[in-house]
Amino acid sequence: MLVDNGVNGDSRVQKAARSAAAAGWEVILLGRSPGSLPQEWQLGRAEVRLLAMPAPLALRRHQFRRAWLRWPLAYPPNGVAAHRQQSVKAWRADLAVRAAELAVARPDTPRLGLRRRQVKAEELAVRVVGKWVSLRHWMLTQAHRRRRFRNPWDRAYTLFWQQAKGDGAWRRLEPGLWDYELAYGPVVDELQPDLIHANDFRMLGVAARAKIRARAQGRDIKVVWDAHEFLPGLKPWQDNARWLPAHMAHEREYAPYADAVVTVSDGLAELLQRQHRLTVRPDVVLNAPAADHMELVPDAPAPDLRARCGVGPDVPLLVYSGAAARQRGLDIMVEALPQMPDVHVALVVNKPAGPYVSGLLARAARLGVADRVHALPYVAHWQVVPFLAGADVGVIPIHHWPNHEIALITKFFEYSHARLPLVVSDVRTMADTVRATGQGEVFVAEDVADYVRAVRAALAEPARYRAAYDRPGLLESWTWEAQADALDAVYRRLVLGRPAPASGAPADEAAPIEPRPAVRSGT
User: Fold this and answer.
1) CB half-sphere exposure, 464, CA atoms < 13 A
2) Do 522 and 1 contact (CB within 8 A), yes or no?
């Protein structure tokens, strides 16, 4: 299994690796180390390897050049700016110590007055030098920040390579994709897997190229492409006209090499089939939590959400769990608090100290509600449901973006298994589901007044919304165990040429995967 992140925090990938290994597959999960050193550990019976991945090709040419015309005083982009800033700080620290020594020196100390005047002169000099260094560093920062690949030249550059190379244009527009190949490719070749489960669009290319090389050596690798999102519907993380065309071209080039496609929703399956003219509709594997929330690490029980927020059992508590970004709509949870004086908000996010969340906390302080907003880090994936169950309402305030309209996202299922009343924005698939099940309230995205109405309704009659979870089969169909069976069936169809065992039958009784290592899955 290939994934372009550090595995921790990616519950879908962790559950897929663990359940495949439990079903009898030999599973090696390759991810990207967050540092410069590789890491290894076990995830159940699955082996996790995080690879060190240098990324020099991700840097653009302008990041190595000076912008002489626009920012003539900027430092060169070679690290000297940080060196100069640190040097000035060291000079200031030295002067502070010397001034302190002279302040307590005996009056008869030789040349005391001269030495004090010298320190005063250096203090003036360091202020001048510090301002000069700050100016040059600011210009360097501006030179990088203002270069956003959205001017007419960059659009023309993008169009030229699209016309010249077609789907191969990504090699010029987003050469950083090669950094993944150079880190992962040799390891995949060495493992000689029978199957590669490629998570999302970056890993699709790595898997397809490994399949091509194996074919030249007389080996057959089956590729399962797990499309987590609809790439054309993504908001590019860079303000960059090249990013989306490059990644879409990369995906189109390698999609034909997938032997099977799985994805997270029926809506996304339809879009992928149409986008890539797939002859077979992708299998749907929901981002559902495990039904069994027993501790996978016995000495690490699930923490208590209310204890971490410092609130008692009677305090109304709203929770959001997931990535923190503007398009996730978390602003509305803070903006509404002055209208709900007793309510607290818990933000369980990937970067509780990141700039976006810091901005939310600053806004809460300006509104006078800072003591009622709690930014918390993620917990382990098997702890998520019992952790979230400490809240009164689960909130999903996401904005209208194409990918938000077509799927039930992970937190939807996690809130459901925690049996929380939901308050969700009116993005299509999720709003339709909540209205059909009666498990919560729907509000107009980005509308504070309607959000407040929905929250008050959910808090007023929680039992009515929780009763929706008693519907026979509802939560059972939203479990990872059901999804794992579907994924295992895809693997078996491709590698063994036979279906998965009947539901409830042990894998080694119905379709034995022996002897090892006859079937090694790059899962």
Assistant:
1) 8
2) yes
* Main-chain dihedrals φ then ψ at residue 148, nearest 5 degrees: -120, 10
Nearest to 379 by CA among 356, 352, 409, 398: 352
Q: In what order do the strands lie in the sheet with 440-443?
A: 373-377, 344-349, 317-322, 393-396, 422-425, 440-443
Q: Provide the CA 258 distance to its chain's centre, in angstroms.
A: 24
> Rounded to an integer, what distance in angstroms lies between the CA atom of residue 273 and that of residue 280?
7
Q: Which residues of 75-84 are buried (b: 16+ CB within 10 A; e: fewer)?
A: bebeeebeeb
Give the Cα separation of 439 and 165 in Å (integer).
50
Q: Return d(Cα 93, Cα 122) in angstroms, integer.
A: 12
In angstroms, rounded to a whole number, what is the distance separating the alpha carbons of residues 328 and 104?
57
Q: Give 10-residue mean pLDDT values along the chain (523 residues).
A: 93 94 97 93 95 80 61 79 89 91 88 91 94 89 62 80 93 92 96 97 96 96 95 70 91 97 93 94 91 57 90 96 92 97 95 93 96 94 90 96 85 95 96 96 97 97 96 90 93 81 40 35 41
